[in-house]
């Protein structure tokens, strides 16, 4: 790899890293809210380990499934910040 290729690779890596920052900053304003996800609309793995991916909740409003919501809105949506129970 010559110097030009190294500089281009470094520049592309910098652009990729900079584009990832806004998404991370947006996540800081969100929190996990349990019990509000519709079947097939959860954001990630079940807390009980029954599945490991988003979109695999099998029933609506399961208290062990969660979605990311804006901070401070979970209770208003009828959810809980803790799995399986109310806040």
Automatic annotation (TrEMBL):
Tell me where on the tree of life, at the top rank, the source sits: Bacteria
Q: Where is the signal peptide?
A: 1-25
The record's listing under Pfam families reads: DUF2282 (PF10048)
Supply the alphabetized keyword list: Signal
The name of this protein is: DUF2282 domain-containing protein
Which species is this UniProt entry from? Nitrogeniibacter mangrovi
Q: What is the lineage of its organism?
A: Bacteria, Pseudomonadati, Pseudomonadota, Betaproteobacteria, Rhodocyclales
């Amino acid at each position: 790899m010559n110097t030009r290729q190294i500089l281009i690779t470094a520049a592309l890596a910098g652009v990729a890293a900079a584009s990832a920052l806004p998404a991370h900053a947006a996540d800081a304003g969100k929190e996990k809210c349990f019990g509000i996800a519709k079947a097939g609309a959860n954001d990630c793995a079940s807390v009980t380990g029954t599945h490991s991916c988003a979109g695999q909740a099998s029933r609506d409003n399961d208290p062990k499934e969660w979605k990311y919501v804006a901070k401070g809105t979970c209770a208003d949506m009828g959810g809980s910040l803790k799995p399986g129970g109310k806040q």
